[in-house]
Amino acid sequence: MRISKGHGLFFILILIFVTVSSCSGQERFEKQKITIEGRGVSQTITVELARTEAQRNQGLMNRKTLKDGEGMLFIFERDQALTLWMKNTLIPLSIAYIASDGRIFEIYDMEPQNLKTVASSRSGRYALEVPQGWFSRAGLGVGDRLDLSGL
Question: Any idea what the CATH number is for the domain that residue 45 is in?
Fold first, then answer.
């Protein structure tokens, strides 16, 4: 089989594109809808799941927007003290620390690109990042529960 110069260049460009795409360092996140219930309110939110260490390290870094009703759920293998920060995160967020039973036990507001860590006061299994103020706008707060049965 003979490849013409034009076709050879085409194949080289495709190879470069595939190589650059796979080496971009950007993790892919599975999306899932979860429901949060409390105080007579029920809200469904679409979350990206950060299950692996690489996904948790990337988080919402370098994103320019995040709509109400969207977020990222950080999933840890075991209950532990949780600590997150806003390195390279461009949008203001609220973070909820969540126990293994799905109950929210703390919520904090976090400022873009702030390198100060925000630690949970006790062990948790999950952390949910959403646009800053979303929990209040949705009528949700500490003591409310996420349905995590589908994870």
Answer: 2.60.120.1140
- Residue 25 one-letter amino acid: G
CA 107 to chain centre: 15
Q: What is the 3-state secondary structure (H, E, C) of the chain?
A: CCCCHHHHHHHHHHHHHHHHHHCCCCCCCEEEEEEEEECCEEEEEEEEEECCHHHHHHCCCCCCCCCCCEEEEEEEEEEEEEEECCCCCCCCEEEEEECCCCEEEEEEEECCCCCCCEEEEEEEEEEEEEECCHHHHCCCCCCCEEECCCC
Interval 74-126: pLDDT, tens: 999 999 999 999 999 999 999 999 999 999 999 999 999 999 999 999 999 99
Query: The whole model's pTM is what?
Result: 0.83
Domains of the chain: total = 1
